[in-house]
Specification:
Elements (H helix, E strand, L loop, with lengths): L2 E12 L2 E12 L3 E5 L6 H8 L7 E6 L8 H4 L2 E5 L10 H11 L5 H10 L13 H14 L4 E5 L7 H17 L3 E5 L3 H4 L5 E6 L2 E7 H4 L3 E7 H8 L4 E7 L2 E7 L4 H9 L3 E4 L2 H9 L13
Helix pairs in contact: 4-5
Bound molecules: adenosine-5'-triphosphate.
GO molecular function, one term: ATP binding
Pfam families: ABC_tran
Organism: Luedemannella flava
């Protein structure tokens, strides 16, 4: 599959803070990516770099084979929706949509109108009078109806209630099936989007911690729950990510999976072995410290 975005040794520092630290990865054509990581991990900075909204400190970015910075032909094929999207003060919902129609070559006005109805947005309401959720819905509508070959959503759904978020996921899934494109979703609601994601990139402290197909990640970690002694025996030799004790019961999260014999052995010992969810895996891989300002990597 063709790479539409290639990043090599990319770094962005703000003073002494390395927001993105020597990152390399590819985004392939027509895939849905999850860009995951804790607060301050560097996700927004990375998306700003990809869309030419920040200048890199070091490294290479190629989008459709070209540098995106001040590159009209590349940027016309990208859509970046962020939670903090700002619009001119006098704009109403319909003005935002009319501007988006001019900005994005693949804009589908019928799809946009159906989404406006789905999300119950009042077309003539001034944007500055929209509720937080309505403002998020407006961003989601622009991002979907733009049908940009590379679409990045940076947590645009923070204000959306659970029903509206599900509507977004459903419309996104249906629309990418019909009009394939590369989508990057940055989110903390990992369990909610897990089934949408085809590939996961996990960022931690500005570095890539995981870059893997979502299917492969489903067998990446397991929860082993049962009497402490039996759990210890079964998890010996595995990389332990976390252990918690609940009275006489121990639950250990380990990297990797178990063969059929071990699963049978576990059952005989009264131990349950379940695959970790994507969210459990991400939490266990990134709970080692509270992210804070970090020193620029010395080179
Ligand atoms: N303009 C800036 N000036 C200084 N530091 C910045 C700037 N933008 C980002 N940072 C710092 O870079 C790091 C990464 O921030 P970034 O916003 O990319 O993280 P994030 O993963 O998007 O976080 P969140 O999930 O909380 O939105 C943080 O330490 C942040 O304080």
């Amino acid at each position: 599959m063709t790479a539409v975005v290639t990043v090599e040794g990319l770094s962005k520092t703000f003073g002494r803070v390395a927001a993105v630290d020597r990152v390399s990865f590819e985004l392939r054509e027509n895939r849905v990516y999850g860009l995951l990581g804790r607060n301050g991990a560097g996700k927004t900075t990375l998306m700003q770099l990809l869309t030419g909204q920040q200048f890199r400190t070091a490294g290479e970015i190629r989008v459709f084979g070209e540098d995106p910075v001040e590159n009209e032909s590349v940027l016309a094929r990208m859509c970046f929706i962020k939670e903090s999207q700002r619009y001119p003060d006098q704009f109403q919902v319909r003005h935002v949509l009319a501007s988006a129609a001019l900005l994005y070559p693949n804009w589908d006005a019928h799809f946009a109108a159906s989404l406006v109805a789905d999300f119950a947005l009042p077309p003539k309401r001034p944007v500055k009078k929209l509720s937080r959720g309505m403002l998020s819905a407006l961003g989601v509508i622009v991002g979907l109806a733009a049908r940009a070959p590379v679409t990045l959503f940076d947590e645009p759904y923070l204000g959306l209630d659970a029903v509206a978020r599900q509507l977004f996921y459903d419309r996104l899934l249906a629309d990418v099936a019909e009009h394939p494109r590369t989508v990057v979703l940055s989110t903390h609601l990992i369990d909610e989007v897990a089934d949408l994601l085809e590939h996961v990139i996990l960022i931690d402290h500005g570095r890539v911690l995981l870059d893997q197909e979502a299917d492969a990640l489903r067998g990446e970690a397991a929860l082993v729950t049962g009497p402490a002694g039996a759990v210890d025996v079964l998890t010996a030799g595995h990389q332990v990510l976390h252990t918690e004790r609940l009275g006489a019961v121990t639950r250990t999260t380990v990297r990797g999976s178990f063969d059929a014999d071990t699963l049978a052995d576990a059952r005989a010992r009264g131990v349950a072995i379940d695959p970790a969810t994507l969210q459990q895996l991400v939490v266990r891989l990134t709970t080692h410290s509270i992210p804070g300002p970090r020193e620029e990597a010395t080179r």
